[in-house]
Structures are given as C-alpha cells and as structure tokens.
User: Fold this.
Amino acid sequence: MLKKEIRQSVLRQLKAQDKERKAKLDRALLEQLLASPDYQKAKTLATYLAFDFEYDTQTLIEQAQKDGKVVLVPKTYPKGRMIFTEYKPNELEMSKFGLLEPKSDQAFAKDKIDLIHVPGLAFNSQGYRIGFGAGFYDRYLDDFQGSTMSTIYPCQEVDFRSDPHDIPVRKVITYAQGF
Assistant:
C-alpha cells in the first residue's frame, strides 16, 4: 500500500473508534508513558495538541505540568518549518490545519528538549511513521539528539517501507491487551 492509502485507511479507523474504548486506551497508554525512564528523566517535554480522534494529549500535558516539567507544543510555518514553544493555554490560536497552536514565535532551543512525544497516523515495527504528509516532524527530528516517543492504538500498527528522509521514533508505546 502507498503511504496515501495507509494514511486514509488509518484515519478512517481512528475516526470510527468507540469513544469509551478510546478513553480506556488513552489512560493505559498514559500510564506506560509516565512509567518510562525517558519521561521520568525529562525536564522538558514537547508534545502536540491533538485532534479528537488522536491520542488525548491534554491529560499528558496536565500531568507533566504537575510533575514540574516544562511543556512545549509545536508551531508550524510555511515550507515545513516547525518550532516548539512553551505551552500557554490562554495564548493559543487556530492554525490552518484546524488545530490550536501557540501565538508566540519564541522557539525553545532544540538541544534543551529532553523528550518529544511525536504524533503520527501509522507506525511500522522499526518506529518509522506516516504523519499527515507535510513533513514537519521528519525535518525537525533530523538532527534532534533527545528521546522520541509515540503512543498509538492497535489500528495504527501498519507494515510499510520507510522512505530515505523518514526519521524513526525511538520508542513506540502501544496497548492491545484486554481491548
């Protein structure tokens, strides 16, 4: 299957998820993420503001703040450029993608980010991902030295061949037991 077909197939499955089951999966995935050594060690966590069909990052953001971590979220620009800036819920605006993102253009230094929680639609067994197709994360992660992690649902595990420019996520957390 082509990446475009995989993207469309997984998106359909994500949007068709049972809300109650999704909430249980989100809690189980969050527990695993919080227990991971990468999260435990991180002083700075970059994550994303999710669509309602994606892993619910709001609980992660709230827990990271309670844990005293600096929380960052992405801001995108033309030509696939992206920065992370400090999460300030009262300083967000709607992006052209229909997601909230920071108004601030104050980029947080990439080498000061300990862990990036990476979104994606599909992931293969080597940690390569298919996102929404704009390439923001592959470009950003190209020279990133910290930890990367994703939390995914069983329907997001797909076998596909990566492209040379793709950057794998170092740890993919999935939870299928009992679901």
